[in-house]
Amino acid sequence: MIELRKTTMEDRKRAYEWLYHSDFSDFLNKLPGVKEEEIPSYSEFTADYEDYFFNGSHPEKGRCYVIVCTNNGKEEDIGIISYTSFHLRDKITEFDIWLKGNHYTGHGFGTKAIQILTSIVKGLGYEKVIIRPSKYNKRAIKSYQKAGFIEEELKPEHYYLGEYIPQFSDGDYGPGEDVFLILSL
Ligand SMILES: CC(C)(COP(=O)(O)OP(=O)(O)OC[C@H]1O[C@@H](n2cnc3c(N)ncnc32)[C@H](O)[C@@H]1OP(=O)(O)O)[C@@H](O)C(=O)NCCC(=O)NCCS
Q1: pLDDT tens digits, the chain, 185 residues: what are they?
Q2: Ligand 1 pocket check: which of 19, 78, 139 to mutate, most ligand atoms within 8 Å of Cβ?
C-alpha cells in the first residue's frame, strides 16, 4: 500500500541523498543536457528546494511529501514527490518525483504516488498538472502516461508566468530534450 506523508525539515537531507546519491543517480546525472560538474551540492539543493517545500509554510508555492510503502504491516519511506506552482499560471502546478533506489522502481509505487498527489492538488483547486522528464527517461514517461498524462507541444506563455519564461521554458535538459506532459484534472 502506498500513502503520502507531509515532509518535515528532517526529510530534506535524505531527499537530496536519494536523488543525487542513489543507484539511479548516475543514469539521471548522465542524461543529455545534464552537466555532471553541475550536480548540486546539498546547499545548492536547499536553494532550489527551499524550507517551504519541507515545512509546508507556503502551500500555494509548493510542497513535498514522503512516499510511504506498507508491506506486511511494515512501513518504509521510499521516495519523494512534490508539486511546485510559484512559477506557473493560475491553477497550474508541476510535479517532481524520485524513489530512493532502483530496487523500488518498476512496482507501480511511483504511479500510485502520482495518483494520490493528483487528488490532493485537485482538492487544492488546481486544474492542470505538468511534468517534464528527459525524453530518454522512458521509465518515467511510461509511469506518467499510466497516471493519465498526455504529451503536448509546449507553449510556454500558456503555462509559465511571464517573468519565469526565460528561466524555465527550455526545461531542465535544454531545448527539445524533454517531453512536455500534461494532466487535466
Ligand atoms: C520515475 C519513477 C518515479 C516511476 O515510478 P515507478 O514506480 O518506477 O513506475 P511504475 O512501476 O509505475 O511504471 C514504470 C513503467 O515503466 C516501464 N519501464 C521500465 N523501464 C523502461 C524502459 N527502459 N522503457 C520503457 N518502459 C520502461 C515499466 O515496465 C513500467 O511499466 P508497466 O507497469 O506497464 O510494466 C521511478 O522509476 C523513479 O524514481 N525513477 C528514478 C528517478 C526518476 O527518473 N525520476 C523522474 C524524474 S522526471
Answers
A1: 999 999 999 999 999 999 999 998 888 888 988 877 778 899 999 999 999 999 999 999 999 999 999 999 999 999 999 999 999 999 999 999 999 999 999 999 999 999 999 999 999 999 999 999 999 999 999 999 999 999 999 999 999 999 999 999 999 899 999 999 999 99
A2: 139
Query: How far is the centre of ligand 1, averaged over its atoms, from the C-alpha of 165 (Å)?
Result: 29
Nearest CA to ligand 1 atom 48: 133
Strand order in the sheet with 2-6: 2-6, 62-71, 74-84, 92-99, 128-131, 181-184, 150-151
Ligand 1 centre distance from Cα of residue 141 (Å): 7
Q: What does DSSP say about strands 150-151 and 128-131: parallel, antiparallel, or unpaired?
A: unpaired
DSSP 8: -
Stretch (H or E) spanning 28: helix 25-29
What per-residue string of b and e applies to 116-142 under the rule 16 or more CB within 10 Å gives b?
Answer: ebbeebeeeebebbbbbbbbbbeebbe
Which residue puts its alpha carbon closest to atom 17 of ligand 1?
139
Domain 2-184: which CATH class?
alpha beta
Cell of 163: 517573468
